[in-house]
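Lecture notes, unit on protein representations.

Consider one protein chain, 465 amino acids long.
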Amino acid sequence: MARAVWGAISRLDSSALMMRAVAASLQDEFVDVWEFEPGRTWKAKFLSWVGHRASWLLIGQVMHARSAPPKLVRRITTDALASWAISLYQDVPGKWDAILIGASNGGVMHLATALGVPFLSQHFASVLEGLSPLDDVEAYHELSKEVAQRILRRNRDLAVIQHYDPLHNRLYRGHLPILRYKLLDLPEHYQSFIHQRVRPGGTIIFADCRYSWPQYLADERFWFQVGGLGGVPSSDYITGEHEEIASLQRKAGKESVGNWALPGKLAFDMPEAEWGSLPPLRDRVAKFARENGYRFLGIEGEQPSFFSHLAFLVWQKLLRSEDLSPRGVFIETNLQIAPLAARRAALLPLWLPRGTRDSLTFLKQMRENELDSISGIQRKPVFWLPMPTPMISFDMPTWDEWLDVLSGYDLRILGMTRRQYPLALEAFYKAQEDLADWVMEHESPVRRYAQVSWLYEALRELRLR
């Protein structure tokens, strides 16, 4: 029964992708991020040189092809979500001394690969068939509301968030409905997996991302979020009179009010739909650990980028433990990830949550605080995997702004050129391929795994800064 609805789970959502990437790395494989079917790659290469609008249309086709029919999504259960997550590790042999559970992001992914342990997400998502019109907040809310309510009635241990991001998830003709699910309790499948695969006395590490965002309460355990992580303040989405938002609304033939508020509703700060962890699960996991003889470590971070910084420090400690000098750095953006490069070639990983101004600011801080202190960094390759996107949003830095932050390095930009930015369809497959090719030619394997105690050390270092 559970397996029958796995097709309703989005494999490309950040939550699912980070788990897929950890599972692939534990099997010494590069994750196939985009999972293009045969024939898509040559079409992407051709359209990369044809024009932005044609590329945008192809993105829409791909997204539609990967959306799920509402009648399947209605059948989502906690059992289906959890069983799908642990199925990713069924071909990974052995037992572990620790496991990561909780909020999903690239930093958590890199912590898991440094430790050599699995990651089980609190978050999941579905992308539903059917478009809502551009900039019509109420239409978007109505489109998947019945599906969400059906899921909630069947699953008392789930919260559901309708996630409407009219800026970053904008397609040419409308918006695909996204439903996000958050576990409120530790599923039986997760409990059994821990008993079977985590050694007695091992550590359960909970990634507790405290990033918040205003959400409308639609019903019990049912929320509606407008916007998301990026370079635009959350208040601008629902209470502001933003001229750039008004301009988008005019182009879509809508009233240019300058925000995307849901009329007649009040919004409350809640854990952000994609990145924030919902509190009840942490308490349930801590209780399970206490009652079953496992250690518990909760890692709190105010932003997804906090976990990226933490993982960078842990990987530094891991390389030092093997007397390895970093061979370089690879900078991932959002879903453009290749975590195995760290273990195969002693490259330090730095994950950026988005290709927006807030991530540019984080990159500047990481350069000042970490990258420039790496011995010989100017002579070592710094790879950047930009995230291709069809929407040139107003919170997106220019190409030159990215290059300015990375000036002075031996910068290797993978999958994209200045002319193609920000939508090079080749980047959907070429960036990871090119990095994997370099890794194969410059292998410097990291054979050890990080110790949980190094997490405590890295956390102390970050708290003191």
